[in-house]
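Forum: Protein Structure Q&A
Topic: Joint prediction for protein chains with partners

I've read a bunch of threads here and the consensus seems to be that you should model interacting components together rather than docking separate models afterwards. I'd like to see that in practice. Below is the full input, 748 residues plus whatever partners are listed. Could one of the regulars post the assembled result?
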Amino acid sequence: MGLGGLYGLSRDALLANGYALQVTGQNVSNVNSPGYARRVAKLETGNSGDGGVIARGLERITDRFADSRFYNANGFSSGSEARSSALGGVDELFADVSGTGLGDSMGAFFSSFSELSVNPSDKTLRSHVLDTAATMTERFRTTSTQLNSIRDELKTRAQDAVAQINALAKDLAVLNGKIQTATATGGDGADLQDQRDRLIEDLSGYINVDTFTDNSGRFVIRGGGATLVEASSASTLTAVPDVAGNLQYSLLSGSVTMNITNLVTGGTLAGLRQARDTDVKTALTSLDQLALDLGTAINTQHAAGFGLDGVTGRNFFQLAGAATAGTMVVDPAMVGQPDRVGAASSAGTLPGGSDNAIELFKISDKKVINGATRTPAEGYGDLIGDVGMRKQAADREATTRSAMTDQTKSLRESARGVSMDEEMVSLSRYQRAYEAASKLLQTVDSLIEGLIRDV
Amino acid sequence: MRISDNMTIGYLTRSNAHLRNELTVNARKASSGARISSPSDDPVGAARLARVQAGLDRAAAYKSVISSATEDAAIAESALAGAQDILKRAQEIALLGSTASTSAQSRLDMGKEVAQLKAQILSVGNAKGANGYLFGGTASGVAPFSPAGAFIGNANARNLEIASGVTVPVNVSGSKAFTVAGGRDIYADLTALETALNTNNSDGVAATILTIEAGHTQLSGARSDAGLILSRLQVAEEGHSSSEITLAQARADIVDIDPSEAYTAFSNTQRALDQSITVTRNILSILASTKLQ
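Posted by a regular:
Agreed with the consensus. Here's the joint model:
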C-alpha cells in the first residue's frame, strides 16, 4: 500500500470514530431517558484489504432474560401494590380505636337493654333502646354501603386499567409495524425499540406480560397468558362483572372471545380483582353474617317478650335477603313505638317485668354468631382481625414484591443502563482515535507535500 | 456487576423513600401514643381489642344498673327504717292507751295520732325511687297501696343481671313487708289500734301491742332483705370495678405504645434519614463532578 492508501485509511478512521463519538453522545444525552438501552458502535476492520476501520452500525445492549424477569416482577409488584392500596380503605373502615366504629354501636345497643332492665316502664329508656338500635343498624348499613362503594370503585379502576392496556396494545402494534419497516429498509430501529420496551414496561404494570419472536419473525406480546399483540395486530381486553358480580376479563381477538380471568395473575388487574372479589367480598359476607345472626338472635328473644301493651311475638329488626347488613333496619312496626319493646317475659309482670330485657342483654355474651360458635364481640373481632390480616399480608407482599422488582430492575439496568463513567472513557478513547486519525492524515499529507516539492 | 447512573440514583431514591415512610409511621405512633390505629397495624391485637372493649362495655353496663339499683335499695332500706319508727311510736301509743288510767279523751287524741301514723305508713309503702315505686313489685307504674291501705301491687321480683349469669331480685317485696303475705297486715293493725282508741276500748288497744310488735319484726325482715340486696350489689360492683381495671390494662397493653420506645424509634429513623440524605448528596456530587470533568 502506498502513501496514497493512507488517505483512505485515515478517512475511514475519521468516519468510524466520528460515528462512535455520535453513539457515545446519544448515550450521554439519554442517560435519564426511560426505556433507553445504551448503544455501542460496532467498529470492525474493513474488508477492502487495507486494514482500515469501518462502523457497522450500532448495537443495543439488552438482556432479554433480565427484561422478562423484570416484566414479571413488575407485574406482581403492581398487583400487590394495587391490592394493598385498595384494602387501605377497608382497613380504615374498621378502625375502631377512635371509638366511632360498628363495635361501639353494638356495645351501646346491648347496654341499652341492661339499662332498660332497671326500669322497664321508663319511656325514655325504652326510646333509648330504639335509638341505639337505629344507630347500630345505620352503622351496619353504612359499613356495607362503603364496602360496596369500594367494590364499585375497584371495578371502575379495573376498567380504567383495561382501557390503558388496550391503548398500549394498539400503540405497540403500531410500533411493531414501524420497527419491521425500519429493519427491512436497513435501519436499526433502535429508538423505536426503546419506545416499545418502555410501553411493554408500562403494560407489565397492568397485566402479566411475556414477549417472544415467533418462527415467522413476528414480535408477540402476551398479556394474561393470551396473545395481546401479534406483529401489528392488537386484541381488545374487556372487564365486566359476571353473573355472580365478580370481575371477568375477556380478550376479543378477531371474532373470538376468550375468558382469561384466571390467567391474569399479575399487574394491577390481578391485584384489583383479588381485592374486590376476594378480600372486600369476604369482609362483606362476614358483615352480612354478623348482621343476620345478631338480628336473628335478637328477633327470636324479642318475640318471646311482651311490650307494655301486652302484645308478644314482635320482631325487633327487619332482616331482608342475603345482603343483611346493607338492608338491616329496626322493624317498621317498632319505630317510634317504645311501648312495644318486649322487656317483660310475661304479661303478668307488666309494666315492671324486665326478665326479657335481661335475656336480650345476655345475647351480648352468648355464642349466637357463625353457627352459634362466637359471641357478637368475638364475631366482630374475627371480622376486623381478618380485614387487618388481609391488609397486613397485602402490605408485606407489596414490600417483598417491590424489593424483587428493584432487584430485577437493577439486573436489567446493569445490562442496558448508561454509565457516565464508561461514556466519559469512551468519549476520551474515540476523541483520541479521531485526533490520531487526523494526525495520520496530516502526516501523510505533509509527506506527500514534501515529496511533491522535492520531485 | 456493572453499575449504571440510574441504578445508583434509583437505589438512593428508594432508600430515602423507605426511610421517609418509616419516619412517618414512627412519627404517627409517637405523636398519637397508639400502637394500633387500624386493624392492619396488629390484626390479632385489633381482634382482641374488640373483645376487650365489649368486656369493658359490659362491665360499664353492669356498674350502671348496679348503681341505679343500689340507689333504690338504699332508699327502700331507709324507708323501711322509717316505717319501723312509725310502728315503734304506734306501739308506744298502744301501751299508753291500754292502761286503765288513760281517759277516753286521751284515747281519742291518740286515735288521731294513729290516723296520722297510718297516713305515714301509706306514704312509706308508696315510696318512689329512681326507677318507680319501690314496693309494688313489677307493677311499678301505679302506687302499690290504695288510699284505703289495700295492696294493689304484685309480689313479682324485679330482677337484674348484675354479673354474667347472675340474676338477682333487687326489690323488697311490698306485700311481704306490709301485708298479711309477710305475716301481718300493718295497715290493718294500725286501723285496729285506731278503732280501739276511738271507741275507748282498752282491751282492744292492748290486743294490738303484740300485732304491732309482729309488724315491727316483719319490717326488720324486709330491711334485712334490703341490706342483703345492697350487700350483693356492692360485691358485684367491686367485682366489675376490678374487672374494669384489668380490662383497661389489657386495652392499654394492646393499644398504647411505650413513649420512650416510640421516641427512640422515631429518633433512630430520623438519624438514619439524615445520614441517607447526606450520602445521597455526596454521591450526586460525585456523579456531577464526573460529568463536568
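Chain B touches chain A through 60 residues (CB under 8 Å).
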